[in-house]
Amino acid sequence: NEDSEFHSSFPLSCNDLVASGRDRKPNALVQVSVIDPHKQHLVSHACTEIVEANKDPLFLTGVTFPSEYPASPETLVKLTVYDAKDKSQESVSKCSLLGSATFSVGDLLKAKDERLTLSLRSSDGVCTAGTVVVSRLKMGEMEEVDVDHITTDIPSQKVKQQSDQAKQESPCSRCLVCSNARIRNPVCKVYRFQTVDSKWMLVREQMEECTLSFSIPKQLLSLYIQEDMSRVQDLRELGDLSPHWDNLRKEVMTRYGETISSYQETLAELDKVTGRSFKPSCCKAQKSLEFIPINLHTQRMRVTCPRKTDACYDIVTVGAPAAHFQGFKCGGLQRLLSRYEGEKKSTAYQCIYYSPEHTAKAQEVLSTMSLLQPLITSLADQLLQAAQERSSTGLRDALKSLSDKTENLVHTLKDELVKSALLALHAAQPGYVSKNQKQTSPVQELPESVSFPLKHQDSIPHHKEYDEEEWDRAWANVAKCLTCVIAMVDKLLEDDNSKQEPVPEQQLADVITSHNLGEWREQLCPPVTRLKECVMEVVEKAKKAMTFVLLQEAACSIPQGFLLQQRRDVVFSQALAALACGFIMKLYAGIQDKGFLRQLHLVGMVAQFESLLSTYSEEIGMLEDMETGISDLQRVMFKITEAKTDDLDHFTVEVPLPRLFFQNLPEEIKEGKPLRVFPVLFNVGINEQQTIAERFGDISLQERINQKNFEILEAYYKSLSEKVPLECLPCFQTQTDIKELLETLGQNVITKKRKNVEILWIAGTICRRLNGIRFTSCKSAKDRTSMSVTLEQCALLRDEHQLNKDFFIRALDCMRREGCRIENVQKNIRCRKYAFNILQLMAFPKCYRPPEGTYGKVDS
C-alpha cells in the first residue's frame, strides 16, 4: 500500500474563529495530537505557530507525525485550537480552548481534493467555535533513502575482517571505521511559505542524532591506549641506561601508564552508556563524557517549490570542541601550548632538548620503518617464492617492489637525526665517560660538546670516541645487499634467456634435467637472507635511536606536556566525531554527483566551522581549544576502501559504503585513494560578553583566526580552480562569482567592525558554493547556534527560492518557535526556552534575536 509510507505535509487553516472576548480577534494556534492505536490515549505531538489577531488564520507550520506513530490510513489525529491571548504564553495549558476536531488520515485521503473542513466543537461538545481546514499537499519523497540513510550494509564481521587486514598490511596506520553509522531519533517539521509570485513553497526540516558521537571517540580512545602501550614497550626495549637516563625513562613510563589507566577508565564508562546517541549540553563538563562532542546533530532542510528542482541544505550543529571538564581558568590550548613551549626550553636542563621539528621527524621515521620493515620481509619472501616457481615475470615484479621499498627505507635511515641520536644514546649507556669530562653532574654522561638547551642540528650531540662511520656502514650494507640481490636476479634471468635459444633435442633434455625448479631459489636465498638480516639490524638500531629522541621529548614534558596532550586528545576527539558525521552526510548527499566525486578525489573537501563564541571570559578559552582542535583535523584523511598509502602521520577514517553506492564511485576512490579535508574556522562573537571584549578587552584572537582561515580557504579555491572545472560545482540562483565572494570576505576580515556577522554569512555561502560541509557551533550548540541555523535557512529560502519578503520574519519566527531547534533545546534541558534574557538580547544583532515568548534565563 503506497499510502503506508506516507510522506506529506498537512497544512492547516481555520475559519470564523470565535474568541472568548467578543471585542477581539483570537491569537490562534493549533495543537496536534496523535491517538495511540493500542492504548487509546492522546499523544501530544506539536503546535503550530501563533497567528495574531486573525479569525481566519492560515498556519505556516504543518502537521507531521512522530517517528513512533508513523502515518497510515488508520491514524487518528486530534486538532485542538487555542486562543493564546499573547505571544508570550509558555504553554497551551495557559491558553483559552476554542474547540477541537478529530479526523483519520484515511478520511483525508478519500476526501475530494484531499481536503477536509472540520467543525470545531467546544469542550462540552455543544457550541461550534468555527472550522479547521486540513489539506494534503505532497512534497514528494523527502529522502532518497530511508531515515537510516547513512547506515552501511557491510556486516560487522566483515568490517572486523577488513580492519584486521588493514592492521596486518599497515601495522601503524591510525584507522577508525565508520561502521554502522546510524541516524537516530529524527525530528521533522513541515512549513509552507509564500514565494514572490504568490505561490506556495513547502519546506521540511529534519534534525537527527548520529551514533558517531560515541563510536568515533571510543575507537579513538582505543587507538590512543594502543599507541601509548607501544611507546612503553619501545622504552623498555632501549636496553640498559645509566642511572640518570633510566630514572627519566621510569618517570616517563609512569606518566604513560597514568594516561593509559585514565583512558581505559573512560572507555569502560563509555561502554556502559547505552541507548544514547548524543551528549546533552547539561553534561558538557561530565568527566566520563569529555571525549564526546556536545549536542551533535545533523539538520537537513528540504525545499519543494514551483518551477524549481527540489533542493536540500545540510548543516551539522555541535557544541564548541573544548575541554569543558578541565576548565578554562588558565586559558585554552592555543595559549597553553604557546606558554608550554617557552617553559620547556628553559627547563630542559635534565635532558637533551630536541626541537619540535626533530621530534616530529623521529615519529615519522618510526612510522615509516614500522611500515617498511615487514613489507620488505614480505616482498623478499615473494621473490623467493617466484624463484621457487621459476617465474620470470613474478621475479621481475617482486624485485621491482622490493627495490622500491628498500630504497625508501635507506633514504629514511640516511637522515642525520638518526645518526646523531645513535651517538646520544651511546652516551647515555652505563660506563660512558668522555676523555675530558668527569662525572660530576646529572648530565655528565653526555658528550662533551653538549650544552643545554640544544636547539638545532648544529647542537646535536657528537663525540670523538664513538665510530661515527659505523651507522653509515650499517645502512650502506642494506644498499649493498639489495645490489647483490638485483645482480643475482639479473644473472638468473640472463642465464634463463640464453637457455631459451634453439638447442638440439637431447641437449634440451639435459638442460631440463639439470635445472630443477628449486635451483633459482637456492642461488637467490643467501643474498635475500642477508638483506633481511641487515634490514632487521638497522631498523632495530634506528628504532632505539628515535625512541631515545622521543624519550627526551616526553622527559621534558613532565608533567605539563602530558596534561596538555590529554586536553588536546579530548578536543580532537570531539572535533573528529563532528567531522566524520558531516563527511558521511555530505558523501551520501553527493553520491550521484560526478562533479562532486571528482572534486573529492582530486582536491578534497572544505569543512567550514562557524563559531559564535565571544572573546571574553571562559569562552576565549573555549575558542582557543576549538582553534587547535579544528587545526588538528588537517591530519585526518577519509577513505572509502582500504587505503594503500605510506603517509602515516594522519588519522584515517574508513567509510564502508553499500555495494550499490560503491560501484558508482570513480576508480581512484574505489582503489582507496586518501580523501583530504580542509578544515577552516571563522568566529564572530555576538553576545553581551563580546560587547565587553570589543569595547574594553582584546579581540586579536578572533581577528587572527579569521585572517588565517581566510587564507586557507582562498588557497583551497585556487587549488580547486586549477584541477576541477568550476562547472562541476553546484548551481545557485545567486550568481555572485566565488572569486568575488572571496574578495568580499577578505575585505570584511580586515575591516574593524563590531560583531561583523557578514563574515559568517559570506564564509557560509562560499562553503556551500564549494560543495563543502557546514558546521555551526557555540558553547553548547543550543541557543546561539539555533539562531544562526534558522537565519541561514530563511536566507537560503529568500535568496535561492524567492521567499516573499513579507514572509521572511514570519518564517524566521516560525522556525525558531516551533521548528527543530526549539526541539533541540527541549532535548537538552527539558525546557522549551532559549537561554537568553532580555538584557542579553539587546546586545545581539537583531536578526539573531528569538521571537517573544521563546526565551528565558535557563541554566545551560
UniProtKB/TrEMBL annotation:
Entry keyword set: Hydrolase, Lipid metabolism
InterPro entries: C2_dom, C2_domain_sf, INPP4
Domain of life: Eukaryota
One Gene Ontology cellular component: cytoplasm
GO MF entry, a single one: phosphatidylinositol-3,4-bisphosphate 4-phosphatase activity
Pathway: Signal transduction; phosphatidylinositol signaling pathway
Annotated ranges, domain C2: 1-118
UniProt cross-references to SUPFAM superfamilies, sorted A to Z: C2 domain (Calcium/lipid-binding domain, CaLB) (SSF49562)
Family: Belongs to the inositol 3,4-bisphosphate 4-phosphatase family.
Name this polypeptide is given: phosphatidylinositol-3,4-bisphosphate 4-phosphatase
Organism encoding this protein: Anabas testudineus (Climbing perch)
Name of the gene: INPP4B
